[in-house]
Amino acid sequence: MTTTPPTPRARRAAHAAPYAVTVQALEARTLDIQLTHFKMPPEQRGRLFYALELVGEMGELLNGCKKYLRTTLSDRRATHVRDHIPDEAADTLIAAMLLKLAAHDTRVARPRRPAAQHIQRGNARWLHAQLSALAGAVVPLYRAEVRGIRGAPARFSLEQYARVIAVLLRIAAFFSFDLAAATQTKLATIVKKVAAGYYD
Asked: CA distances (Å), 99 to each of 7, 47, 57, 70, 109, in order?
């Protein structure tokens, strides 16, 4: 019995599918926290708010990477890699998910996970290229929401959303952390902070 080898498209789909499931689980967890602990559906705060949140959190991530690149002290670099950068990457993903949820977009995002051989760890130029790609994916999402003020809200761009996640996955791979695990940790921290009255 002969089997037909999978097509390149089928291989790409198989590679993306597990992370699509991961993203769906993270979206569901984020929505549950928003409804249970903040008592507010994402659309009540609004798409424009979360688009601004996304840009802001991306800025924090870029700032964390800047500090990592600037410092020559190994202990400070280690702190950025261990704590700050995963935390800010998680915040960026959470903001993107809340924007999608506020748009009532139930489509499944299928971001591409990076192949290990394509990650250039230790290469600052490569990291800059990823940070630029992240800005290039985030800004159009914000711009679309701003344009929606003057007319009907734009259709949420699932393609740009998936691109944001794909770039975050490459940044996570550069720094050797698990984006989903960092996001789950941040969501748990948010729940604790809500209980402690950190958010109004």
From this structure: 34, 5, 13, 32, 13
| DSSP tag of 157 | -
pLDDT in tens, 63-84: 999 999 999 888 888 888 888 9
Name the residue with tokens 């993203």.
23
Residues 118-131 pLDDT 10s? 999 999 999 999 99
Contacts 24+ apart (CB under 8 A), 38-44: 38/194, 38/199, 42/98, 42/99, 42/101, 42/102, 43/101, 43/102, 43/103, 43/104
Task: Name which of 31, 48, 62 is nearest 144 in CA terms.
Answer: 48
| Alpha-carbon span 35 to 186, nearest angstrom | 17
Longest dimension (CA), the chain: 65
**Total-model pTM:** 0.89
Residue type, 85: I
Instruction: Judge whether 173 and 114 are in contact, CB under 8 Å.
Output: yes
